Amino acid sequence: MKSLGVIAIILVLLLSSCTNSEEVDKLSLISAVGLEKMPDNEYKIIIQYLMPKKDQEPLPITKEVDGLSIYEANNNLNEFLPRKPYWSHNFVILLSEELAKEGIRSQLDFFRRNPEMRQDTLVAITESPRKILYNLQKQQLSGQTLKLIARQASARKGLGEVSTLHKVYQNLFFKKPFLTITHIFLDGENPRIDGFSIFDKDKYITTIKGDEARGLGFLKLKNKYSSVTMNCLDKENRQITFNLTNIHKKTNAYVNDLGIFEIRLSLEFEAFLAESHCMRNISDTDTIKKLEKALNKKIKELAKKTIEHSQQNVEIDYFGFGNLLYLNHPKKWKEIEGEYETVYKNADIKLKINTKIVQTGAVN
Amino acid sequence: MKIAEINYLQLASIIFIQILGTSLLIIPGTVVEVAGVDGWISQIVGTIMALIVGMMVFYLYNNFPQDNLIIIFEKLFGKIIGNIFGFGFVIYCILSLSTVIKQGCSITGYIFLPETSPLIFFIVFFLIVVYITKVGMNALARTNVLVMLLLITTFLVIIITGVPLLNVPLKPLLSEGLFPVLKGSLSPISWMGQVILITMIFPYLTSGNKKNIKTTILMTLIVVGIDHTLITMFTLGILGLEAKDLLIPVYSVAKLIEIDLIWRRLDVMIMFSWVAGVTLKMSFWYFCTVLALKQLLHLNKYEPIIIPLAFLTFVIAYYSTNNTVELTFYLGKIYPILSLFSYEFTIPLIMCLTLFIRRKRISKDSKEFTP
Asked: Residue ranges of the Spore germination protein N-terminal domain (chain A) (predicted)?
C-alpha cells in the first residue's frame, strides 16, 4: 500500500512538470482584432499583438491576414508570428460596417466557441477596422485604450452601454432583441466614439450620432453621467450647463383594447450645475424651479428626437419596449408578435421627466 | 474490527459533496436548457421531491441502523431477490460512477487543460480514487468536511460578487406552463436523489441519535436545494437565456465577475472546487461500490477488489461518451430517468412499502455488517 502511495506521489509530481508550459515571453498577446470582408467572400483579420520583452514596455504591432473563416485566418497567423497567438487578453473586436450588415452572430461565433476567450471583450462597429488599428500602432496605443474610451464615454458622456461580447449575446437571446453597439470612427488620427450602431436582430442597420445618440443615453442608462447645455433664462445668447445622472427609471408597456401599443416612461434625474454664463445668483427657489422646468423640457426634446428617429426613420425598436411587453404581458405579446413593426410605428409613447437640481457648485 | 465513526458534520459534508461536487457547475445549464427562465422553480420542485427521498432514507435507517443497503435488501426480500437487487445496485453504482468520472475528466480537460490528453486525467483520478478507498471511510469523511468549506466559500463568493451583474429579470413566470418546469426538475431530483448512497454507510453512524440524523439528512438536502436554486437564479439573472447557448454557464458567470482589481478571474476558484469536489465524489461512490460488492460476494476484506473493479469502472468511463455533447445529452435526458426509475426513487419506495407491510415479520439478526 505504502509503495503504491509513493508511486502515486511521484507520478503526480512528474505529471505537473512543464512539458508544454506557456511562458509569457513565448506568446504573442493579442490585444485587438478587426474583421473585414473581402470581395471574394474571404475574411481579412487585422490583429494587434503585444510582444512582452524583458524590462521593456510591450509595443503594439499590427498585422493582417486572410482566410475563408476567422479561425482559418487566425491559424494563418502562425505563418508569420514568431510566437503562439494568445487570445485571452484580447480587449476589442472591431467589425466593419459592411460585415455587420450580414449579421454579427455568425461572425462572432469564433470568439464564443474558444474557451480561452473572455466574454467581457468590447465589440465595436467601425467603417474600417484596418485604419483604426494601424493608427493605434502609430500612436503606440494598445487595444485596451479603445475599451477604456468606450467605458469612459458610457459613464461620463452617457453614450450607450459598453457593448461587451456577453452583453451582445445576452441581448440576442431576448425574445425581441434590441441590440446597440458602440461605434468608433477616426477623427483625424484619433479613434473616437461618436454614437452607436443599431441592429435589426443581429443585422447592422445604421449608426446614430449626436443629439439622437445622447437621447438614447437618457432613456436607457441608469446611474451614468451626461451633460445638458441650454440657453439662459434671461439671456438668449448665453448658456448654462448641467451635469445629469439618471437615478430612477420606470417603464410600462402594454397594449390597450384598441390594439394600440402604449408606453409610459417616467425618468428622474439629479442635476448638478456645472457651468453658468449668466445669473451668478441662483440661490432663490423660484429660479431653481424655473431652471428645473427648462431642464425637463430640454431633456424631453432630446429624448423625443431619438424616439421619433426610432419610430419614423428606421422603424426599429432599439429601446427594448417589445421585450418589456413580453416580460410583463406575454399573452399580449403573442397577439402582436407577427406585426410588431407596424404596431411599434404607431405606438403611443409618453414621457414624464422629473429633474431635481441638487447642487449649484462652490460658487454662491 | 472497530467500525469508523462518522459524526453529524461529516455526514452532512458527505451528502453535500455527493450532490454539489458536480452539480454546482452543471445543473444550471441542464435545467435552463429544458425549463428556460423558470429553471429556478424547477430547482425548488426538485428539492421538495428530494426531501421525499431523504425521508425514505431515514425510514430505512430508523429500522435498520446497523445494516447497509445490501443487507437490508436481503432482510426485506429474502436471499435470491435481495441478491438480485444487490447486484443491480452494484451495476447502477458502476454506471453512475463512470458518468461522474467522465464528467470530471472531460470538463477538467475542456476548460482548464484543453491540450492535455484525456488519458492523463483518467490515470490521475484512478490513482487518487484507489488510494482514498484504500485508506477508508474515516479519512474520506474528514476530507469531505474540508472540501465542503471550500465549496461553500466558492459558492458564496460567486453569489456575492455576482450581485452587481444581475440585470435580466426572471420573467415571464410560467409562460410555457407547468410542464417544462416539471420536466426540468427531473435533473435536480436525480442529482439530489443520490443521497440514497448513504444507505451504504448506516453502520458507520454509530455515535448519533436517530432524531439528529434525520435533521442532518433533511437540513443538508434543503441547504443543497437552496444552493441549486440560488446558483440557477444568478446564472439566469446574469446571462439571461444566453445560458442556453453555453456549455457550462456557471463558469462563464465566474469569468464575467470583475470588481475592481482584486476580484477578477474567479474561474480559478471554480476550478479549485470542481477538481476537489469531483475527486471526493468519485471516491465516495467507489467506496460504496466496493463495499456493496464485498458484501454480496461474502468476502472478508474489500481491499483485494479495489484495483480490479477500478480498472473496470474507469475503462467503462473512458469509452462511455465521445464528446461533451453526448455527455450533456446523457446527463440531462437519459440519466435522470434511468436513476429515478431504479435505485434513487422506485426501489427505495418499494423497500419502504415492503417494510411498512412486513415490519413485524422481518428477522432482526440474520446478518451483520463487517467493515
From this structure: 21-181
ipTM of the complex: 0.81
Residue A6: its pLDDT value, please?
A: 86
The domain that holds A292 is classified in CATH as 3.30.300.210
> What are the chain A neighbours of B136 within 8 Å (beta carbons)?
none
Residue among B33, B108, B167, B175 with most chain A CBs within 10 A, to mutate: B175
Residue A274 lies in a domain: yes
Q: How far is A5 from chain B (nearest CA, A)?
A: 7
Tell me, yes or no, whether A40 and A154 share the same domain.
Answer: yes
Nearest by CB to residue B127, choosing from A11, A115, A173, is: A11
Whether A75 maps to a domain, the answer reads yes
Mutate to test the interface with A, among B105, B110, B117, B127 (most CBs of A within 10 A): B127
Candidates A170, A178, A332: best to mutate against B (most CBs of B within 10 A) is: A170
- Asked if A120 lies within 8 A of B258 by C-beta distance, the reply is yes
Tell me the average pLDDT across A147-159: 85
Q: Which of A172, A192, A212 is the last residue of a domain?
A: A212
SS3 per-residue string spanning B44-95: HHHHHHHHHHHHHHHHHHHHCCCCCHHHHHHHHHCHHHHHHHHHHHHHHHHH
Domain boundaries, chain B: 8-359
| Domain assignment present for A217 | no
Q: What is the pTM of this model?
A: 0.86
Range of the domain at A63: 4-212
Are A115 and A232 in a shared domain?
Answer: no
Q: Which residues of B154-193 are buried (b: 16+ CB within 10 A; e: fewer)?
A: bbebbeebbeebeebebebeebeeeebbbebbbbbbbbbb
Q: Which of B287, B277, B210, B226 is nearest to B8 (CA)?
A: B210
Bridge pairing between strands A92-96 and A27-37 = parallel
Instruction: Using an 8 Å CB-CB cutoff, list residues of chain B that contact chain A.
Output: 110-111, 114-115, 120, 123-124, 127-128, 130-131, 134, 168-169, 171-172, 175, 239-242, 244-245, 252, 255-256, 258
User: Are the CB atoms for B216 and B8 separated by under 8 Å?
Assistant: yes
Do A203 and A241 reside in the same domain of the chain?
no
**A179 and A51 within one domain:** yes
Boundary residue ending a domain (A212, A245, A273): A212
What distance in Å separates residue A13's CA from the closest CA in chain B? 11
Q: Which of B120, B128, B252 sits opposite A119 (nearest CB)?
A: B252
Q: Which of A247-256, A276-285, B203-212, B227-236 has the lowest mean pLDDT?
A: A276-285
Please report the sign of the dihedral spanned by the C-alpha atoms of residue B2, residue B4, residue B7, residue B11: negative
| Residues A243, A174 share a domain | no
The answer to the question of residue A333 being in a domain is yes
**A69 and A140 part of one domain:** yes
* Distance from C-alpha of B224 to C-alpha of B50, rounded to nearest angstrom: 10
Tens digits of residue pLDDT in B107-124: 888 777 877 888 888 898
What is B8-359's CATH number?
Answer: 1.20.1740.10
- A93: pLDDT confidence band, cut at 50, 70 and 90? very high
Q: Where do runs of H (alpha helix) occur along B204-248?
A: 210-239
Give the closest of B123, B240, B258 to A170, CB-based.
Answer: B240
Task: State the smallest CA–CA distance between residue A233 and chain B in angstroms.
Answer: 40
- If asked whether residues A94 and A168 sit together in one domain, one would say yes
Q: How many domains does chain A have?
A: 2
Q: Which residues of B touch A170 (CB under 8 A)?
A: 168, 239-240, 242
Rounded to 5 degrees, φ, ψ at A63 are -135, 160
Top-confidence range, A245-259, B247-261, B290-304: B290-304
